[in-house]
Design goal:
9 helices
Length: 232
């Protein structure tokens, strides 16, 4: 876990690069005068808040008196761990609040951030797998399979985004929903066969995220329609 900061920096670089690629020529973002500088500034704040709330959620999920020690609480690279669900919820909540405050289109930016997050996660997961291999001398099959699946899912969403076939926000809702579902299975696989039917608080929160965002995806598709498209 001492390598978590290095891996997170690599993922952050990939995240920012993807935002640059998807947002620099996006007609909707350009029409709303949303600059790359604004998106990068939001990204850095989400990066910091994501870590803080990921740690906070983990402490809530694993209540212990040892976290009363500030060193144990904040030095998470040496006293792991983090809650992915906490980081995701905090990031989305901040993105929604700041864009609504600035009266900027949340749904379109949410799509861009979601795809970028998936590529960033897909770049960080294999680094964890490599470290796991050198520490345990076992081939991390689950992590390798997870990397491939997430990367394919990111490509699928990229194709849907570039073809502009879905309403704004649909990519974000669908992307986070399926990501959460896949991560539940990934966590169960990493725990081993003895724990296939045991669920942790993190799994339950991820399950809620999957259900809620999947429902929002269908709501987005049935309630709104793309300009120029007729409802059947």
């Amino acid at each position: 876990m001492q390598f978590i900061l290095e891996i997170s920096f690599v993922s952050l670089f990939v995240f920012l690069f993807c935002i640059f690629v998807f947002a620099k020529d996006d007609f909707i973002l350009l029409r709303k005068n949303i600059t790359l500088e604004q998106l990068f500034n939001i990204s850095f704040i989400i990066y910091i808040l994501g870590f803080l709330f990921a740690r906070f959620f983990y402490v809530i999920e694993h209540v212990s008196t040892k976290y009363l020690d500030p060193f144990v609480l904040f030095l998470f690279p040496y006293f792991p761990g983090l809650s992915l669900s906490g980081g995701i919820l905090a990031g989305i909540a901040y993105l929604l609040l700041i864009l609504n405050k600035k009266r900027l289109p949340f749904l379109r930016v949410f799509d861009v951030f979601t795809i970028s997050f998936l590529y960033a996660f897909s770049s960080g997961l294999p680094l964890f797998a490599v470290i796991e291999f050198f520490l345990t001398k076992h081939i991390p099959y689950i992590s390798a399979i997870g990397t491939i699946i997430y990367f394919i899912w990111a490509i699928i969403l990229t194709l849907l985004f570039t073809k502009n076939k879905l309403n704004d926000g649909s990519i974000g809702y669908l992307g986070i929903s399926i990501f959460s579902l896949l991560f539940i299975f990934l966590r169960i696989g990493l725990r081993g066969s003895k724990f296939y039917f045991s669920f942790t608080p993190e799994d339950i929160i991820l399950g809620f995220i999957w259900f809620f965002f999947f429902a929002m995806f269908f709501y987005q598709q049935t309630t709104y329609q793309l300009p120029g498209k007729k409802k059947k």
